[in-house]
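Exercise 7. Given the encoded structure of a 271-residue chain, write a plausible sequence.
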C-alpha cells in the first residue's frame, strides 16, 4: 500500500502539461480546489470530472498509476462519508434502531467522496508533472509579492519542496523496515486495533531515526555549499511564460466561469 501513494512522486514523460510553467499548474490546482467547494449541484462536479479527465489525458500519465494513490485514503473517504451519511438531518429515507438515513445525508456522503477523490487526483497531477525544483521556483516566483510583508517566501517554498521530495524516500524506507520486521517474525496484521498500533512501534522508531539522520545530512550538505537563502541567488533556467501558458490561463478562466455558474444554478440543485 505504501508504494501506491503517488503524492510527491514525479512521472517522467513528454506532454503539454509537463511543459507548462509551474506557476500555471500551482494556480490552476488552487483554483480547481476552490471550485470544488463552490458547487451546489451535480452539474458542477460533472464539469470538474470532465476537466480533470482531459488534463490527465493531456498529461500522458497512466490513469491507473494515478488512481493508485487513492488506496491510501480509502479509509478516510469511507469514514468521512459515513459520518455525513448518519449525521446529516433532513428527509428520512431509512430508519432502524437509533440510526436514520436521510436523503440529504446520502447526497452529502456522495458529495464528500467525490470531492476528496478530485482533491487527491488533482494534487497528484501537479506533483506527477512538476519536478521539485520547478515546483520550488514556481512557488517562490508566484508568491514573491508576499515579501513586501516580510514573508520568507523562498524558505517556505524550499521546505515544501524538500517535504515533497522526501515523501517517496520515507515511503521506501518504511517499506524496507516493515519487510525487515516481518522477516524477523513480527506480526503486523493480526489482532485488534491496539495490538496493531503497538506493533507499529518497532517501525516508527527506526523510521524517525532515519528521517532525522537524513535531515541532518541534508542540512550539513547545504551548509557545506554555503547555502544562504533566496536573496541574490540566480537561476540556471529562469521561468518565462510561453504562449501555451497564456492559453492555459484562458482555459482555466473558462472552466471556472462555466463550472461555478452551472454548479450553483438553482434549476440543477438537488439539495
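Solution.
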Amino acid at each position: 500500500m505504501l508504494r501506491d501513494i503517488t503524492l510527491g512522486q514525479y512521472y517522467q514523460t513528454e506532454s503539454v502539461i509537463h511543459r507548462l510553467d509551474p506557476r500555471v499548474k500551482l494556480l490552476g490546482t488552487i483554483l480547481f480546489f476552490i471550485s470544488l467547494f463552490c458547487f451546489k449541484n451535480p452539474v458542477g462536479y460533472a464539469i470538474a470530472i470532465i476537466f480533470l479527465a482531459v488534463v490527465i489525458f493531456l498529461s500522458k500519465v497512466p490513469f491507473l498509476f494515478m488512481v493508485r494513490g487513492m488506496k491510501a485514503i480509502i479509509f478516510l473517504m469511507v469514514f468521512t462519508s459515513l459520518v455525513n451519511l448518519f449525521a446529516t438531518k433532513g428527509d428520512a429515507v431509512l430508519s432502524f434502531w437509533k440510526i436514520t438515513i436521510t436523503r440529504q445525508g446520502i447526497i452529502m456522503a456522495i458529495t464528500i467522496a467525490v470531492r476528496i477523490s478530485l482533491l487527491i487526483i488533482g494534487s497528484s497531477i501537479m506533483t506527477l508533472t512538476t519536478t521539485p525544483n520547478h515546483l520550488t521556483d514556481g512557488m517562490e516566483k508566484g508568491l514573491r509579492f508576499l515579501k513586501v510583508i516580510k514573508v520568507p517566501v523562498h524558505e517556505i517554498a524550499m521546505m515544501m519542496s524538500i517535504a515533497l521530495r522526501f515523501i517517496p524516500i520515507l515511503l521506501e524506507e518504511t517499506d524496507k523496515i516493515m519487510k525487515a520486521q516481518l522477516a524477523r517474525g513480527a506480526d503486523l496484521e493480526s489482532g485488534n486495533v491496539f495490538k496493531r498500533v503497538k506493533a507499529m512501534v518497532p517501525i516508527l522508531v527506526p523510521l524517525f531515526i532515519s528521517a532525522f539522520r537524513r535531515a541532518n545530512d541534508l542540512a550539513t550538505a547545504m551548509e557545506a555549499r554555503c547555502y544562504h537563502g533566496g536573496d541574490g541567488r540566480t537561476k540556471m533556467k529562469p521561468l518565462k511564460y510561453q504562449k501555451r501558458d497564456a492559453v492555459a490561463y484562458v482555459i482555466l478562466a473558462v472552466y471556472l466561469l462555466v463550472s461555478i455558474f452551472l454548479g450553483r444554478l438553482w434549476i440543477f440543485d438537488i439539495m
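Remark. The CA atoms of residues 29 and 122 lie 7 Å apart. Students should compare their own answers with the one above.
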